[in-house]
Write a structure and sequence with these properties.
alpha+beta
């Protein structure tokens, strides 16, 4: 996959509620077309998501899921998802849409998840509580676009202190 294919794939799709699948502010026209794309699959993709941050602040700091899981903020997010019926939905249906994307630094070491944060929170919580999602996780893909101008491409508000 090249940058143009990434843009084409992720720019326009909508969630069932009509909102953009990529739920962060992206200035698509500023993505350099020579940006590298790294694609992970299956368990590697699922595990790699832990290295990236959701586009919201937890205890005032943007931090990767690996540092976020187990915190009060994570528990609060899971509870919010439970109240909205989403946790039950994933418990009953599994991870029907196992595709994720990340907007990352040039070396791909840090980034913000553009699509899939809530799916990951719900399913990671269920998995940590014994739900077998191995079949769904085996279908996962994580597409990471590595940008030398990340702060120009995504809204700065989701990236401070990270």
């Amino acid at each position: 996959m090249n940058a143009q294919e990434f843009i084409t794939k992720w720019r326009w799709p909508k969630d069932p509620d009509g909102t953009p699948m990529v739920g962060i502010v992206v200035v698509w026209d500023k993505i350099p077309l020579d940006s590298k794309i790294i694609t992970y699959s299956g368990e590697e993709a699922w595990s790699k998501i832990l290295a990236y941050a959701p586009p919201w602040h937890n205890e005032g700091v943007v931090k990767p899921f690996s540092q976020w899981i187990g915190s009060k903020g994570f528990s609060d997010e899971v509870e919010s998802e439970r109240k909205a019926g989403k946790l039950d939905y994933y418990n009953n249906h599994g991870l029907e849409y196992p595709f994720f994307c990340v907007f990352a630094t040039k070396d791909g070491s840090k980034g913000i998840i553009g699509d899939g944060n809530h799916r990951f929170v719900n399913c990671k919580s269920l998995q940590d509580n014994g739900k077998d999602l191995s079949t769904d996780i085996a279908r996962c893909t994580l597409e990471v676009i590595c940008l030398d101008n990340l702060s120009e491409v995504i809204q700065d508000a989701v990236f401070p202190n990270y």
